[in-house]
Amino acid sequence: MRHPNDKIWGLWGPDEKSPQIWGLLSRLLKEYCLRLDVVYDDPEFPIANRYPKVYYWNQTGFDT
Fold first, then answer.
1. What pLDDT, in 10s, does the model give residues 4-61?
2. Rounded distance, CA 13 to CA 15, Å?
3. In 3-state terms, what secondary structure has residue 12?
4. Given Cys at both, which of 27, 30, 32, 56 links 36, Cβ 3.0 to 4.6 Å?
5. Domain definitions of the chain by residue range
6. What is the pTM of this model?
7. How far apart are CA 10 and CA 2, in angstroms?
8. Closest residue by Cα to residue 36 from 25, 46, 45, 44
């Protein structure tokens, strides 16, 4: 996402989740800079035990 109103996959307009994802991603990029990996859920590439901390886009408890 380049901004909160960006198209999803370049095809669809933003939805109700876009501002939440944008806010969390912006905050984490400020905190971690180039030490942040953005990954997608894919069973062929499990992230378990790969990262010391994992943030999920729909995780509660973030001030975005």
1. 777 777 777 888 888 888 888 889 999 999 999 988 888 898 888 888 888 887 776 5
2. 7
3. strand
4. 32
5. 1-50
6. 0.64
7. 11
8. 25
